[in-house]
Structures are given as C-alpha cells and as structure tokens.
Amino acid sequence: MSRTKRSLLTAGAVLALACGMLAGTASTSQAAQQGPCDIYAAAGTPCVAAHSTTRALYGAYNGSLYQVRRASDNTTKDIGLLAAGGYANAAAQDSFCAGTSCVITVIYDQSGRGNGLTQAPAGGAASGPDNLANATAAPTTVAGHEAYGVYIPAGTGYRNNHTNGIATGDNPEGMYAIFDGSHTNGGCCFDYGNAETDSHDDGNGTMEAIYFGTIKVWGYGSGAGPWVMADMENGLYSGVNAGYNANDPTVNYRYTTAIIKGGANQWAIRAGNAQSGGLSTYYSGARPNVSGYNPMKKQGAIILGIGGDNSKGSAGTFYEGVMTSGYPSDATENAVQANINAVAYGGTTTGGGSGSLTPGSRLSLKATTACCTSDYIRHDDADNNVVISPITASSSATDKGDATWIVHAGLSNSACVSFESANQPGQYLRHQNYQLHLSASDGTALFNQDATFCPQAGNNGQGDSFQSANYPTRYLRHYSYTVYIASNGGSNAFDSATSWNDDTSWLLATPWS
Q: Which residues are in the Alpha-L-arabinofuranosidase B arabinose-binding domain (predicted)?
C-alpha cells in the first residue's frame, strides 16, 4: 500500500470515529466500546502506556486500573472495572478502605506493555522514595459513576524507569492527560510523560513531558496560570522561546485536557475543557531555539507528579493519561477529546432538586444527612456565621432570604461557583479558619479563592458536593449544625470521617426567596 493511500485511510478512520461520537451515528453500546487508545490505534499512533484510576482507556480492557494499600493491616487490593471497557469499581475501594486510610500503590498500564507506575525512587534533586497518594483525596464522577483521581501534594510522585516501547532519542510521541485545573502550584514540577531512566538531570532534551502549574522560573504564558507547557529538561517551554510566550494562555478548567506531542524538530501544545468543547492549539512548530533540544535525547522513563530528577515540590491531580508511539494528528486528538467529553467527568448534576448552578440563578442548598433533611445552608444575621437550620413554608421572609443564594461563576476559577447572599448583596460564602462565614468581597486573590467551590456529584450519591478551590481535600460540610470546609478524617472534630459523605452532599433546591 502506498504511503499516501495509507494516510488517507488512517485519516478516514479517525474522522469516522469522531463523527460517530459527535453526530451520534454510533449506538450507545458501540460508543461505550471505544476508548481513547482505540482511536489512537486506528490512526496508526497506538498507545504504549495508558494510565487511569477512573475508567478503561480501551473498549475491550477488563483488567485492574490501580492498586490500593490500607493502613490498618498493610494489605493491598486491585481496583478494577464495573464492566469491560467501563468505569472504576470505586465501591470496591470504599469497602476495602472503610474505617481506615488507603494509598495508591500502583497505577496499572492498560496497553499491555507493563508500563505501570509505582512509588518514585530518590533522584538527583530529592531523596526518596516519594510519598504515595491518598486514595480518597480526589473523589469525582465519570459517566455518573463514582471514581477517584490521583491527588498529588508536594512530596508525592510515581515513576517507571524500566519501560517498554516509550519513545527514545528523537523518535516521535504524543501524550495527553486530564488534570484538575483548580489544584496547582508553583513548585517544580507537576509532570506526566517521558523522563530520564536514572532519575537525574541528564541535560537538555533528555525528557519530554506535560507540565501543568504556575511556576515561572523557565517559561510561562499569559495570565496568572496555570499553563500547559512542555518539560524538556532544564526548561519548561510555552513556545519556541525560553521565558514568556504570549500565545500560551492560562488554562484552569475544573477538568483540563492537556496535550504535548513531539517529533523531529517539531512539537505542539494543545488543551481544552475535558467536560465540553474542542481543543485549542497554543503552539505548533520547531523545537526551542536553545541548544540541546534538536535533536532530542529522550530516555523513555515515565513520571507522574514530579520532575525528571525527582524534583517534587509540585501539586496537582491526575485522572487519566496516555503516551503514544508516533506523532498523533490534530484530527486524532480531536476525536479523543470528543471521547473524553462524552464520559462527562464531574457529571452534569441537577442536585436531585429543581435548583441550578447556572450563573445568575438562585437556589437553596438542602442537607441530605438523615438527621437534617429539612435543613438548609443559611447565614446567621447576628454574627454572619453559616449554619444549617430548618426552613419551611411558614418560615419568615428573612429566614427564607438567609437560606437563598445567587450563583456566580467562581471568583477564582470560572469553572467552579461562588455563592452570594440573596438578601445581603455583595456578601459571599467564604471560609476562614475552615469555618464558613458571610463576608463582603474585598477583591483580593485570597478572598476569591476562599469564596470559590468546585461542584461534583454528591459524595453519598445524592445531589452535589462542593470542593474548596484552595483546599481541594476539603468540602462544604455541616457538623453540629455549623458549616465548615472539612476533610474526610483529620485532627479537627469537624473532620470526623463519621457520616462525612452524607454531611458533604447537598441537594440543589428551589430557592426559598
């Protein structure tokens, strides 16, 4: 077969897959049997590593996604799927980890090449082994099913220095990952991708990975960040030049698709909202105009959450990602993005009530815990503390107004939400010392972060749960009738693991006022 004819057939296969998902020409059962790696394979750029704690990345995959270890007895359990080609069996993790804590010990490779990720060892920049991720710190939903991401604070990281089929030298590759756009920092370096096999800095061009965060030491884009950049060792590149590149914008979708691909004197940055819409290309062109990056000297290890030399000052959350053999076309990646959109990360919840999280709408937030199903979040006029209390049709107009909130796009992240009091304009729900208060906006970055909450499907399967934008392990929770941002277990009384899932789940109810 001629090269031209093969290229045309490959493009046609990708287009057919994309059209089937976008236009609905494939049946629901057929769509469920297509994963991102099926799309890459049909285009001639197959996955050589495929990692996810949330779902299968091949339509036929029916193995384990990851392994957890519980603290109570140090035993481990593989977490698999509800069905072949489907979604994580998170209930199996919940049962295994009940009453104790768990960490993620292995993230399995679905490609069949054995490129799983385990605890990162020491490296040139930092001692090790690195910490392992708390298995319950990043709850989410995918296609309406409960799942968990990989929550990585500073000091945590995963690696595989002995891989099979990952690109080396100047050979072409592609990669994508889905990250939490509300959980980033300016440490070095929250990466996923190709790195050195000795865990040391071996010079310019010895790695090629997706970076996501706000560090500005080597390169950065427009706005305050986070930015999707390429970590090519000794440089985070946002374009052809070192330092600032205006065309690489801040990207902070709650679920962010981030893409880096590279070949012979060619590479690109692409990104988009993993929940909806297409991909944008922020750079596509020649390698950086700095010595050492053309040709590349990639070594083929795989890292997650750390830099190539085990720099581990970064933070982020990972849900899924793959690495390919060959340089994927934009059309292939667009079809993958359509597949990602179709599984609805985070869900499109209605809260089990008739309220709405559409900016500009009004709602009331109703507790779901058995003790308190007539209680709503409201502010106390006496001291501006935020509590839950019963509200009924016979309640006073003031009480109804105190339990009604105006929804705004998140003050610090437009993919999330902020809540303004309906009867005290300019006053917002805001946490201070973990307790919720009603406070007037002062326009500072800290206030905006404290007043921003990221919705996801309810932790107990009802309604919605609201993650703090600047403390991602903490959620709006009522405890002794007072509202806090609380973690699932901790030193504070309001962090109690008892009824945490119920206490952090809220129905979006018809506004009382």
A: 366-507
What pLDDT shows up at residue 389?
94
Amino acid at 490: G
DSSP string, 350-384: -TTSS---STT-EEEEEE-SGGGTTEEEEE-TTT-
Q: What angle do CA 150, 61, 66 make, to 5 degrees?
A: 25
Cα separation, 307 vs 161, in Å, equals 13
Q: Where are the alpha helices (DSSP H) in 215-312?
A: none
The whole-number pLDDT of residue 182 equals 86
Kindly list the distances between the CA atom of residue 308 and the CA atoms of 26, 30, 158, in Å, as whole numbers in the listed order: 41, 39, 11
How far, in Å, are 142, 271, 283, 330 from residue 176 at the CA level? 17, 9, 15, 12
Confidence check: pLDDT of 404 > 90: yes
Give the global pTM.
Answer: 0.70
**Are 230 and 208 a contacting pair, CB within 8 Å?**
yes
At 506, which helix (H) or strand (E)? strand 506-509
Segment 273-278 shows an average pLDDT of 92
CB 190 within 8 A of CB 158: no
Q: What is the pLDDT of residue 460?
A: 86
Backbone angles phi, psi at 177, to 5 degrees: -150, 155
C-beta of residue 363 within 8 angstroms of C-beta of residue 404: yes
The number of C-alpha atoms within 13 Å of 257 and in the hemisphere containing its C-beta is: 28
All residues at 6 or more sequence positions from 443 whose CB lies less than 8 Å from its CB, including other chains: none
| CA 316 – CA 118 distance, rounded (Å) | 17
Burial of 132 (0-12, 13-18, 19+ CB in 10 A): buried
14, 331 in Cβ contact below 8 A? Answer: yes
Phi, psi of 492 (to 5 degrees): -85, 150
- Please report the pLDDT score of residue 347 as a whole number: 58
Catalytically annotated residues: 233, 309
Mean pLDDT of 261-283: 96
**How far, in Å, CA of 451 to CA of 428, rounded?**
7
Single-letter amino acid, residue 438: L
Average pLDDT of the residues in 121-133 = 95
User: Which two structure tokens, joined as six digits, stand for 506?
Assistant: 């809220």
Instruction: Give the pLDDT band of residue 174 (cuts 50, 70, 90).
Output: very high
| DSSP letter, residue 332 | H
Please list, in sequence order, all residues whose beta carbon lies within 8 angstroms of the beta carbon of residue 39, skipping any fewer than 6 positions away: 14, 17, 332, 335, 336, 339
Render pLDDT for 183-200 as a digit per residue (tens, 0 to 9): 999 999 999 999 999 999
Contact 135, 68 (CB under 8 A): yes
User: Which amino acid, 222?
Assistant: S
User: Which of 381, 452, 389 is CA-nearest to residue 420?
Assistant: 452
Instruction: Please give the helix or strand (H or E) that residue 486 lies within, else none.
Output: strand 482-486
DSSP letter (8 states) at residue 95: H
Choice among 95-99, 101-105, 344-348, 389-393 with the minimum mean pLDDT = 344-348
Question: CB neighbours of 161 closer than 8 A, spacing ≥ 6?
Answer: 121, 197, 198, 199, 301
